[in-house]
Amino acid sequence: MSVTTIDLLRHGETEGEGVYRGQQDYLLTEIGREQMQSVLTDELPWQQIITSPLSRCASFAADLSRDTGLSLAYEPRFIEMSFGQWEGKTAETIEKNDPHHFFAFYDDPVLNTPPQAETLIAFQQRCISAWQAMLKQYGQRHILLVTHAGVIRLLLAHILSMPLQALFHIDVPFACLSRVEVYSDGNGDFARVLFHAGRL
Fold first, then answer.
1. Of 1, 34, 87, 107, which one is least surrounded by beta carbons within 10 A?
2. What pLDDT was estimated at residue 188?
C-alpha cells in the first residue's frame, strides 16, 4: 500500500481585503506573507510544491522553492472559484444591491450561482480533476499545495463525502494548514484528514 501526504496551505492576507477576490489577481500584504511564513519550521517535510498561479499563492510558493530547492509546479485548475460580477465587491455591497442572489447563494450554492460566475459543480469538477492528476503524477511523496479557501473547502468536502451545500460550514482562515493522507492499493484510494487549521 502506498501513501501520499498532501498539506493544503491557504494564502495569507491580501490587498483588497474584504472583497470577493475570486480569480482576480490580488497581491499578498506583508502581514499575509508573515502569516504563511509562520507555519514553516526549520525542518520542512515536503518533496514537491504545487501552487495556484494567482500571485497571492504563487509568489510565496516561488520564494519557498527558491530558498529550499524544492521543485515547483503551477496548476491552474487549483485557482479559486470565479465569482463573476461579485469579484472585487464586498459582501455588504452585494447584500445591499442584490439581496436575492446573495442570500440564495449561501442558502444553496449548488442551485444559486452568482451572476456570470462559475457554477459550483464546474468548480468541483476541475478541482477534483486536478487532485486526481496530482496524485497520479506525484504519488508517494509529501506535497505542499498552496491554494485558496474555496479549493481547500471543496477538497476537504470531497474527502469527507460532505454535500456541496455544506461547503461554507468549513472555516479556512488565512494561512490555514490542513494535512491529508491518501492510501492506494492499486484498486482505489482511501483518503483521511489528519488535521485542519493546524501548524507543522
1. 1
2. 85
